[in-house]
Amino acid sequence: GFFLPQVLNEKKLQEVDSLWKEFETPEKANKIVKLKHFEKFQDTTEALAASTALVEGKLSKNLKKILKKIVAKDAHEQLAVADAKLGGVIKDKLNLSCIHSPMVTELMRGIRSQIEGLITGLPSREMAAMCLGLAHSLSRYKLKFSPDKVDTMIIQAISLLDDLDKELNNYIMRCREWYGWHFPELGKIITDNLTYCKCVRKVGDRTNFASSDVSDILPEEIEEDVKAAAEISMGTEVSEEDINNIIHLCDQVIEISEYRTQLYDYLKNRMMAIAPNLTIMVGELVGARLIAHAGSLLNLAKHPASTVQLLGAEKALFRALKTKRDTPKFGLIYHASLVGQTNTKNKGKISRMLAAKTALTIRYDALGEDTNAEMGAENRLKVETRLRHLEERGLRRISGTGRALARTDKYQNKSEVKIFDPSGDSTLPAVSKKRKIQEVEEQDAEVAVKAKKFKAEMKEETTVEDAEPVKKKKKKKDKEKQAEEEETSPTVELLGCFECELGCLATCVALLLHYGLFTATFVCLQNAEKKKKKKKKMKDEDED
């Protein structure tokens, strides 16, 4: 009920920090505060109405009557109020002076702790039961608990819808395979599963297609194709009992398909009633799966946007964290239409933004008082605008202001015939530059000068050898002389006299190769001339 106490000693209330000591025992509390009036509630409904009015800062009818009767008599006294909003309402309607301060808060706390000692005639058990019942009623009111907000039906409906889809796929696959032994061409002509089952149920044996009318199920063109294929079918013959069982299976498929359509309409209506903003954002199927995955709409409202984004991809997330790889970017929210119409590059960004807006709409649906879908439509428009901006960003110019769209030129197919270049297969070093004609002439002149000098030196050597007495020697000594002459031959002096034929003096390898080959051939020519001279000497000696 309504409990109205009166303060006896106002001086002790000035000491706010030590006020709690005055309420340690019921005896001390009775010295500070005494009961002035108490009016009991008739039932729990009245208690709930009074409590909700106080929570919302409103003045109920019963409280207004009590304040007029009792407090109005002592108009000169102040009324201590714990809620400043409620105090303003009382002051406006009843013209009573109200006070709200930290001292009042401490006083209210002390009165609550010793409420059983201040109110006489109420046993503690009855007080506890009333408090518990009022707490439950107030919690239901705060959460707006009503049959229209039951999300258990959505969880059961979406689970049943998934099960029906699996069973339908199994039944249709079995029906196509079973009847395919009798009429295999029909499966290729009719692609729709429900139309296939209706056609098989109406006709039965393939021989009946020629005389039966299937215009209410199939278009004229497809009907003609089916009748033509039935006449030349390669299928096996089946008995009447087999056809009856196949027809019974087709009946089951058609009934389940009709029930699934009805269940989908029911789920759509329930989602629009319970979570309209969530339905507009991600669709009824994705929204129902999110609610079923979280357990309830209230549990889903407690999840942050990052969790909403990854709901349904928990295994991939923990596997990525364990193997230190990239974490997934989306879970069940991937099947939303906004994410599906995005290109692969921007799917992560759009799913993150969609999850953030979806989390807001879920909380609005679960805890909000209004049941309109304006918030969901506004957030969806923002996400679509962001999506359009991301798609247009790729078409902007990279240079310049970046505001103008890039101009795409008309595509023209240019066919070019490429010829294989065999020069790339050569392992020889490529010529860095071509030698000029003057360089080649200069080199030839230098070579001619060197050759003349060499001939003059050779003539001098031959004259010296003719003057000395010639004696016969053995082959070993001739070989030793040849080796000594090779060592003393002017090959080292000639190394610096020739340029590389490739025209590249900076390449050491080419120089060494060139000079090495040249000196070797030069030594061979010198030895050959010496051998000729020796042969002539031997002939001259024999003649003498």
TrEMBL record:
Provenance organism: Alca torda (Razorbill)
A family per Pfam: NOP5NT
One GO BP annotation of this record: ribosome biogenesis
UniProt-recorded name of the protein: Nucleolar protein 58
Complex formation: Core component of box C/D small nucleolar ribonucleoprotein (snoRNP) particles; the core proteins SNU13, NOP56, NOP58 and FBL or FBLL1 assemble stepwise onto the snoRNA. Interacts with NOLC1/Nopp140. Interacts with NOPCHAP1, NUFIP1, RUVBL1 and RUVBL2; NOPCHAP1 bridges the association of NOP58 with RUVBL1:RUVBL2 and NUFIP1. Interacts with PIH1D1. Part of the small subunit (SSU) processome, composed of more than 70 proteins and the RNA chaperone small nucleolar RNA (snoRNA) U3.
UniProt keyword Iron present: no
Location of the region described as Disordered in the Swiss-Prot/TrEMBL record: 458-486
Gene Ontology terms: cellular component: box C/D methylation guide snoRNP complex; small-subunit processome
Membrane-spanning ranges: 509-528
